[in-house]
Amino acid sequence: MKDIRIVAGRDIRPDAAVSLALAGYGKDAASQAQGKALFAELERRVRQAVRLKAALAFADDGQGRTGLYAVLTAGTAVSRQAAMYIARKEYSEAVLFSAMADSCLFSFERQLGEAIRSLCRETGCGIAGRHEAGADSGFSLQKRAVQAVEAGRTLGVTLTENHMLQPEKSMVILYELADDPDVFHIEHDCRRCGNASCSLRKEGKQEEYIRCPRGVRISQWLQRQRYMDSFPCGETGRCGKCRVRVAEGMVAVSPEDRELFTPADLAAGWRLACKAVPSEDVQIVIPKGNRGVLAALGQDGDAHEADAGHSYGLAVDIGTTTLALSLVDTTTGRTVHTITAANSQRAFGADVVSRIQAAKGGKGPQLRKAVCHDLQQMFHQMWDTYPQAKERCLKAAVAGNTTMLHLLMGWDCGGLGSWPFYPVSLGGDWYLWKDVFGKSDGFSSQPVALLPSISTYVGADITAGIWACGLMKSEETTLLIDLGTNGEMVLCSEAGLLTTATAAGPALEGGSLQWGTASVSGAICAVTMNGVRPKVRTIAGAPPVGICGTGVIEALAGLIETGLVDATGKLKEPYFRRGFPLATTLDCEQIVMTQKDIREVQLAKSAIRAGIETLLYEGRMTCEDIDRVYVAGGFGYYLQPAKAAAIGLLPPQLVYKTTAAGNTSLAGAAAVLADESVLDDMKKICRHAGEVILANNDFFAVGIHRTHEFLTLRRYI
């Protein structure tokens, strides 16, 4: 007969602080007083209803090893009592009663540690770790546990058709065994837990409580107060990055909320800020992660001293997701220092189409103000670092795609969003500082060059890249790919220059990912897999804050190689629901790559790959005809071509022909500062470049579908 140990709870009382936190009571004095009064009223009933019991048994852990399974339950009376409160419409009582029962269950688990230690001593083993269904393991764990301890017979605990436990106030734990009896890690680890919204999360959850007035969309209010500025989907409710929790007051549930959140999340008050318009004053909670690591400023590369007596200029690259600024010594042509930041225009949408629509809808001035504010902050940071260069800064040069330059200048974007796609200007001229960035810090009449664009969707950033990579002077057949929100690419051959652009989206720059970040200090920039355990490297070796473009590509390549992501892009259990953990922040928040993240990257890589294949097709060439490939983009750290091929971003035949070129857009702007005649060279490039329009290209449309899946490409790498 199977050795199953039954343990009963002893003298366990509900914990007031835990119960109030689980029930969503605010930390202010009034909320706490209200909650404690109701807690005292319900405590006797909770103690009467709760019947704590657990069953323990050793069994196969699902991976060919032996583990210790535990099923805990508070009994059926708790659910009946909670249902009674709901039937009476006593919702406050129902929520707090349920939370108090949960606190008893958690206390019982700690008490259960005594029985587990005794059992381990008997068998000569230890506990290496703890896994909980729904937290850091898949729900298939519940079925194995119920079978292992014969929970129906021993505890009266069963599974529904959806693998949910009955009674509801039950939980399943798998304890991973260790050979050393002195190893005994049975405690819950918040760093491994996938429930980032847990109100009991320890160490650095750092939630912020904000009062929002009635009748105002919560996202708009948070923007005004500068609490939140990340709305990659343009406030359409698709990305889920603006999630907040309503702590006090009522906010109606939107259709978008129902799509994103579970019923339990909705009951706990989770809402999308972009769709929430409260009918009364409410208090909301902003998770720390939603403040957006993308907003952080960072530096790229080594800093140098600024030489007294030299002249300086500022090179600016305005990306859809990321901004970059370099201080250039125009006397020597050397870049002194570079800093990066997120483009806060992302609040109006993650891609150029969203921003064009926002501008056409009357938000053009707001878009211009947003990017100018970002740049002014970056200017101030640069002058704080190099005050001696400020007085000697004589000019600036700006690169970016055509839409970004239109928004910077406040030009009408109406012609950019509909056929025949005509711009107000393609740049290539000098302007006054005040007309580009606005007056500040004594800067007003200094000249600013806008680098020339090739077309509406092949911008000045690609023109700068063509010049910086020396394509016009090369005798090689060359492919230049600028990996960003807009995937722009150039084929240079004896026949001339052929360009195109595809809407990749911000995933490759981290913009639409749950933990996406710009290339700032602490961004995960490299990932290697040791089995299913990731090893990460961060920019500057700093503590992890998120994941940037190169890290995204390498993480996904590793997941594909290990079989954790299949050809369709599906992330396997137990990571499908909670994401694959990569690292932990200093605040004990787990940086994960989610299933939604993988879909975003999948869409981006197929758009880029199909664009490459279409450009080659229109140029009457194959991968074998290409001598050299330059991959540009503001990733900050260089891309590994083999990893890009592993996810299908690059054709595998091009792996050994590929060189990472860094931010060629910024390099081109710096070149104009060092030698103004370079601007004329770039205008010549624009005049000689042809363009392939992908919007109505049948080969591209087919290619999008053909390149969507992930294929095993080890034979090429």
The poorly predicted ranges are: 289-299, 712-717
Alpha-beta content class: alpha+beta
* Envelope shape: elongated
Radius of gyration: 29 Å
Mean pLDDT: 83
Show the helix and strand layout:
Blueprint: E1 5-8, H1 16-22, H2 29-49, E2 53-60, E3 66-73, H3 77-87, H4 91-123, E4 126-132, H5 140-148, H6 151-154, E5 158-159, E6 165-166, E7 170-178, E8 208-212, H7 218-224, E9 243-248, H8 255-260, H9 263-267, E10 270-272, E11 282-286, E12 298-299, E13 312-318, E14 322-329, E15 334-342, H10 352-385, H11 387-390, E16 393-400, H12 402-409, E17 430-432, H13 433-436, E18 447-450, H14 460-468, E19 478-482, E20 486-493, E21 496-503, E22 523-530, E23 533-538, E24 546-547, H15 549-561, E25 580-584, E26 590-593, H16 595-618, E27 628-632, H17 641-646, E28 658-662, H18 664-674, H19 677-688, E29 689-691, H20 698-706
Parallel strand pairs: 13-16, 16-18, 19-27, 21-29, 22-24, 27-28
Antiparallel strand pairs: 1-2, 2-3, 3-7, 4-7, 5-6, 8-11, 9-10, 9-11, 12-15, 13-14, 14-15, 17-18, 19-20, 20-21, 22-23, 25-26
